[in-house]
Amino acid sequence: MPAGIITRSAHPDALWPGVKAWFGLEYDKVPATWSKIFEKMSSNKYQERIAEGTTFGLAPTKSEAAPIQYDSDQEGYVATFTHAVYGLGYIVTREELEDDLYEQVSQARSGNLAWSMSTTAEYVHANVFNRGFSTAYPIGDGAALFSAAHPTLSGNQSNLLTAADFSEAAMEDATKNVWAIKNNRGFPINAGVKRLIIPTNVAFNATRVLNSVLRSGTNNNDINALNAMGIVPDIVVNKYLTSLNAWYVQTDVPNGLVSMWRRQVELEKDNDFDTENAKAKATMRFSCGAADWRAVFGNASVSG
Prior knowledge:
With 304 residues, the protein is of the alpha/beta class. It contains six helices and eleven strands. It has one domain: phage-related protein like fold.
């Protein structure tokens, strides 16, 4: 029997009466996470490119009778999104379908296939963060997503936060870094914090820090500036992050974290004439990643 085919031996108890219930088929699914973080775009090509454009530099002083100086805008780095196909299916023998006494088992398969596809999308998008500190996965400018050396016309710039476990002070420092974002020419831009992206391990501490009226974990009676100023409007707890303590600050810079979809999830069913096996498969085609690194800052934390 070829591997991957579901036969009657896969669920022997489903062939006999007396099973009170089946567990493992009706767990609550984790709500969608990636769609809260990434800007979703459609695509009609195998590959999409998002290019950086640069502005002009500062205007120099013009001396009397001297010619004016000219500058040129140009293209910066290019972020390339090449779509990958993800697919999964199952095959069931006709005999298994005929002899299965519990529709709960067979009817759950399509839903579980959909669950596998949605969870795959979550892991793929989360890997943008999980791999973000590694130079083995560079973005369009050749640096890691979270790097202190993003090359620009005005010199290297950084979206790599000083490693620190999440705290009030660390979040304040991160906010200052966001406020200090500059464009390719070194001009300050009006950027702010859009959301905090954290693993489950950081959720309790982040809630205490951001929602306390007074400063968290101190004997001081000072106000909590992060709370009073409404610095962090949104928090997303992502269960697919591999580091238990690394945390990320997403900014409101546009065209940053992008999810390009060439094909949405498609479910197809068919029957094999010779074997009478029933087949079902699901496929999707997309790519995701970072175009403008200024859209997210990363903190690897000291706890790893």
